[in-house]
Every structure is written in structure tokens, then in C-alpha cells.
Specification:
This protein is α+β, with helices and mostly antiparallel strands and 78 residues long. Helix content is 42%, strand content 29%.
Length: 78
């Protein structure tokens, strides 16, 4: 009984730690040589999208939004 209770508590702790982990979104811009340079990291997708769009229009450079797994989420070409 004690071993089973220990397993249940361990599973609850692991599930809670992964459920509350926040996704990171990376804003990158393309420099004049075609390399992608990091600009900013955010935890809110809406805020990251707004920031990327405004900065792309103000600087005139391509910007992209990438998640922490490396997946391309958005690309803005002014």
C-alpha cells in the first residue's frame, strides 16, 4: 500500500510540473547577411506576435517567431 501511494504522489508531482511549464517564444530577425539573430524571448504568444510585427514594420527587416522546440510559428516580411 505504501509503495502504491508513493507512486501516485510521484505521478501527481510530475504531472503538475509539466502542466505549469510555460512555452517560450523566440523573436528573431534576419540581418543584412541572411543570418537569423535573436531579438527577444517571450512567454505570451499574442504579445510575441504583436512585438514581432511592430518591430518588423519599424526596422524594415524580416522577423520570425520560433517556439522552444524550433518550430516556425510566424514569418513577417515588411
Amino acid at each position: 500500500m505504501l509503495c502504491t501511494l508513493r507512486n501516485v504522489v510521484l505521478l501527481l508531482v510530475l504531472a503538475a510540473s509539466t502542466a505549469f511549464a510555460q512555452m517560450k517564444y523566440f523573436i528573431q530577425y534576419q540581418d543584412q547577411f541572411g543570418h537569423w539573430r535573436p531579438f527577444q524571448t517571450k512567454h505570451n504568444l499574442g504579445d510575441a506576435t504583436r512585438t514581432m510585427g511592430r518591430r518588423a514594420s519599424s526596422t524594415g527587416k524580416k522577423h520570425r517567431l520560433v517556439d522552444q522546440d524550433g518550430n516556425l510559428l510566424d514569418l513577417v516580411t515588411p
